[in-house]
Each structure stands twice: as structure tokens, then as C-alpha cells.
Amino acid sequence: MKKWLVPAVAIVAVLFLIMFLWTRRERATMLLVNARVYTLNEERPVAEAVAMAGDRILDVGNSSDLQARFDADTTIDLGGRAVYPGFVDAHGHIEGLGALSLNVNFEGTRSVAEILARISERIPALRPGQWLRGRGWDQNDWESKAFPTAQDLDSITGTRPAYLVRIDGHAAWVNTAAMRAGGITALTPDPPGGKIMRDGSGNPTGVFIDDAMNLVSRFIPAPTMDERTAAFRLALDTCARYGLTEVHDMGVDSDAVKIYRGLRDEGELPIRVYGALEPGRLWEVAQQSGPDTSDRDGMLTFRAVKFLADGALGSRGAALLEPYSDDPPNRGLTMISHDELKTEAQKAARAGFQVCVHSIGDRANTIVLDVFEEIAKSSNYNMKQLRFRVEHAQVLAPSDIPRFQAIGVLPSMQPIHCTSDMYWAEDRLGPVRVRGAYAWRSLLETGVIIPGGSDFPVERPNPLLGFYAAISRQDESGWPEGGWYPEQKMTREEALRAFTLWGATAAFQESRKGRIARGFWADLTVLDADIMTIEARKIPSVSTHMTIVGGRIVYPKIAEPLP
Q1: Other C-beta atoms within 10 Å of 183: how many?
Q2: Assigned CATH for 98-217
Q3: Distance (Å, rounded) from C-alpha 503 to C-alpha 303?
Q4: Mean pLDDT on 164-186
């Protein structure tokens, strides 16, 4: 061979190798194209396509570029639909949502008569001796606004015990048979953190507030594991249908942990669950074993514990600094003492758990912030790394608003509560104190983030209702004009972050979830309309086109790719 041919052959070989490498196409399991993709990445906030491999995102970019680069097992043309980082509900109650469908649902009822009508339809399906269970009543939606009585129920339930939970989960309405089963009489004292509603003679009327609910509920026969599992399955599928890719389940017991682990092991957990444990035996054991973050795919995590500081505003159990404007001298109920909360929070910090505290009234929020501040000052803990959370942070004293950022505490809030409560919140709080309620803008301006949730089944699990409430502070009919205290609105981008990146951050997942970026989990929510641009009033009616979790289409449940 002539000497000049050797380098020539080498050059040609190198050129062929370069061409081969240049033209070789990468493999993807799924490719979404022809979409408007909101990435929440600063360098490229909007794209057209997403490539996925397994449970991770490979790349985000233009449709033509990604189609040229990737051979995909499945390619879906979204026809211009909008794609967002997978929605996160940072505060929900999975089993409660499922049980709502399995029991009597009173959502939307406007009178005692409507409730009795729904009960009459349910009673024939009950077994002999089975308690009548239900949830969703709200006396604030009735013409009289007064709490109902046991006698209202007795006329239709007779000797069958009935236990009906208020929409917020902080009060129960029971009949005489249920009180008899619990041994409740005029001599029964109010328990700490609870209140028995009574008539002028001191007799229980049939409504039990907060911890007083336990006086009756402990006598209700416990559901079987099969019944509980059915409730979990139903709720998880419902969440996926609404575009949720993760829920922070606030308050799970040992059986719930078993159910979740069983669903995960069977490959039947459609969305991610970040669980906060209930206080009690499970919490005591967890302190020794530490957080459960062993899932490689991140589908199931237990690294938080939830405590209750007070009740709810609607049932006047939220702990206020001054009496209720419409119910003096009542200041609500505290359900855990300052010292007990501090002890438990310190235990959590030592064991590596995040603390989540239900706190609605301004007095409860002050107590919780005082505890967290004392821990921050008396220890070497970095509170911003612990990410302790105040769940709801609904009514705040003006002096407490900047303390979240100063201490390093997350206000985990539910925008939909604002638009559900705005009809009567000022009656409870008065015109001055109400300005510290649902104060999102005031909080955001201090530099904190606000993880967004719904508190379902108190509210519906549709995150678009929370998004709409956050940007409009109006109900679905557009009332009030301009919004209720509109200076506290979020922008659309803030609302999107609240239900995506900020929710992920509240679960220590911001490096894996909450944005559409290379290496992140392939969790995506696809909607039939673009909530970042359409008229605000149309947002609540937007439908979920597709929910993808870990690269799997979990809604709709289909065997073949969507057209």
C-alpha cells in the first residue's frame, strides 16, 4: 500500500465514525411533541416537546429537534395542548376522599332537609346495626346558620347510630342513638381541646367540636382493611384524574402505611405519596427507625409528622388571640400545648423528620411560630434545612407574617379555602383582623414560598380550583367583582409554582420534581387548555388530558397511546 494511502484511509474512517455518531439516534420510551411546555426553567421557560426514558426526563426542546434525535417507543402529538410539571397537592387526606364516596356525601347541601333526603336514600343499603356515616355538611351554607341537632336526625334514623362529619373534619353531628352508644349525658365534661354543644339546660345537642368528637367516634366499628384499601384506591385514581402526580397525605396511621406499601409493592400506586404520620404509637416507633425514604423511584415517602394546634374557623374551633366577632367570648380551642409541641418538634428534628402543624387561628399560629423560633435559637438546627411547615396558616397577626421567612418555616396553604370561607370569614374575624387572613401576597413579599394544596375532602381535589382561587380570589361565578381583598392575589406563575415546584420543595424533592428538566422525574400534567393564558373564569372547567407519573400514563388508563 502506498504510504500516502494510510493517512487517507484513517481520515476517511474518522469521518465515517463522526458521521455515525452524529446521525445515531438516541432511544426514548416516550416523546411528547407539538405542545406548549411550561418548564419552570429560567433558561428555557417554554418549550414544545419532552423526551422521556423510563421514569426520567431526557430532554426538553423543539419538536423537530427532539424527533430528529430520538427514536421513541411511543410518540404522542398533543395538538398544541399545554404541559406542566406534574401538579402536587401539598395537603390532602387520601382515605378521607375515598371514604367520602363510600359513605353519604353532603357536599353542596343547603339545608337540613336536603341532608335528610340523602340519608333516606342511603339507609336501605345499610346492614342491620351498621352506623350511618357521612361527611360534608356546612351550616354556613344554610339559611339559619345554626348548628343542627340530634333531634333533626332522630326523625329519620331512629335507633340506628348516625355520625356525620362537618365539611372541615372538625365537628361531628350525631343522633341520640349515637350519643347513647357513647354514654353521653349532660354530666359528660368537655374534653381538653374539644367542646360539646349544649342547650340552655346543659344537655348535649348532638354537635361535638374537635377532640370532643372522639367521645362518640371511638364507638364506631372500625372499617376492615379491605374497606380501607378500597377507599385508598378510589381516592388515588381520583387524584390522577385531576392531574395530580403527588399528594402530601396529612395524617396517616400504621394501617394506612401498610396499605400504601402494599399498593406500591403490587405496582398499583398511581401517584406519588409523601406521608405525614399521625402522633401515637406509629410516631413513637418511627422515631427509632427514622424516615422511610427507601423508595428508589420515589413513589412513597414517610418523613414527616403532623400535629394539630387548633380547630377550624367554620366551626369556631380555630384559636384566636381575641374573641370571635360573631361569638364572644369564644376564642376557639388549642389542641396541643406550647411545651408539648416543642418537645415533639425537638424529637422530630433529632430523628430527621419534618414537622407539619395544622394551625388556622392567629393565636395558634403565634404559638407554633414561637415554638419553632425557640428551637431555632436553642439548638444547632438549620430550620431552613428542616423545612418545618405550618399547615393552613390561615389567619395571621400582622407581626407574625415576616416570621416565617425569618425563622425558616414554610406556610403550606390552600387557596381554595379563601374563596370557600370569604362569604362568612369577616363575620368571624371582623374588618381589621380579616386582613391577615389568606394573606398570600403579604407572605410572598417576605421571600417565602407557599406550597399549595386543597385539604381534600374538605375541598375538591381539583388543583385548578386552587389555581383559580389563587389568581382571582373569586368564586366560580366571578363574585366578588375584582376579587375578595384582591391585593393578596398570586400571579399565574406564582400559582403554578405553588402547585408544582413549591410543593416539591416542601417534600425535599426540588432537585427531582417540580420542573421539566433533564434528569428530573418524568411527572407531567397535560391539560386541554392553557391555564397560563386563557380567561381566568374558564380555568375551573379545564379538563385533564393526561397525567404522567414516572414516565407512565396513569390517566387515562389506556393500553395504547392517545391520538
Answers
A1: 11
A2: 3.10.310.70
A3: 15
A4: 95
Lookup: cell for 290: 427514622
Measured in degrees and rounded to the nearest 5, phi and psi for residue 70 equal: -115, 135
Report helix, strand or coil for 87: strand
Under 8 Å between Cβ of 531 and 492 = yes
- Grid cell in block for residue 309: 394546634
Q: What's 110-130 look like in SS3?
A: CCHHHHHHHHHHHHHHCCCCC
> What sign results for the dihedral spanned by CA atoms 241, 245, 251, 256?
positive
End-to-end CA distance of the chain: 58
Query: Which residue in 422, 354, 415 sits closest to 390, CA to CA?
Result: 354
Indicate left, alpha or beta for 73 from its phi (over 0: left) and psi (-120 to 50: alpha): alpha
Closest CA to 237 of 562, 560, 561, 554: 554
For 460-470, the pLDDT digits (tens) are: 999 999 999 99
Q: Where are the domains of the chain?
A: 5-80, 98-217
CATH of 5-80 among 3.40.50.2000, 3.40.50.720, 3.90.1150.10, 2.30.40.10 = 2.30.40.10
Q: Is the peptide bond before 561 cis (omega within 30 degrees of 0)?
A: no
Partnered with residue 37 across adjacent β-strands are: 47, 83
264 touches 295 (CB < 8 A): yes
Q: Above 50 in pLDDT, residue 390?
A: yes
Cβ-based neighbours of 99, under 8 Å, separated by 6 or more: 133, 135, 231, 457
Q: What is the mean pLDDT of the chain?
A: 93
Among candidate residues 53, 73, 78, the one with its CA nearest the CA of residue 63: 78
DSSP 528: S
Question: CA 199 to CA 150: how far, in whole Å?
Answer: 12
Q: Helix, strand, or coil here: 507?
A: coil
SS (H, E, C) 344-381: HHHHHHHHCCEEEEEECCHHHHHHHHHHHHHHHHHCCC
**In 212-287, at which residue ranges do the beta strands (DSSP E only) sit?**
244-252, 272-277
**Count helices and strands in the chain by DSSP H and E runs:** 20, 23
Residue whose C-alpha cell reads 340519608 in the numeric block: 119
Task: Assess whether the previous peptide bond of 457 is cis (omega < 30° from 0).
Answer: yes
Determine the pLDDT at residue 145: 87
Task: Please confirm whether the linkage preceding 556 is cis (ω < 30° from 0).
Answer: yes
Q: How many CB atoms lie within 10 A of CB 105?
A: 16
- Do 50 and 82 meet the contact criterion of CB atoms below 8 Å apart? no
pLDDT at 22 over 50: no
C-alpha cell at 396: 395571621
C-alpha grid cell, residue 398: 400582622
What are residue 47's phi and psi, to 5 degrees? -135, -170
Among residues 141, 143, 137, the alpha carbon closest in space to that of 206 is found at 137
* Spatial distance between the Cα atoms of 238 and 161, rounded to a whole number of angstroms: 30
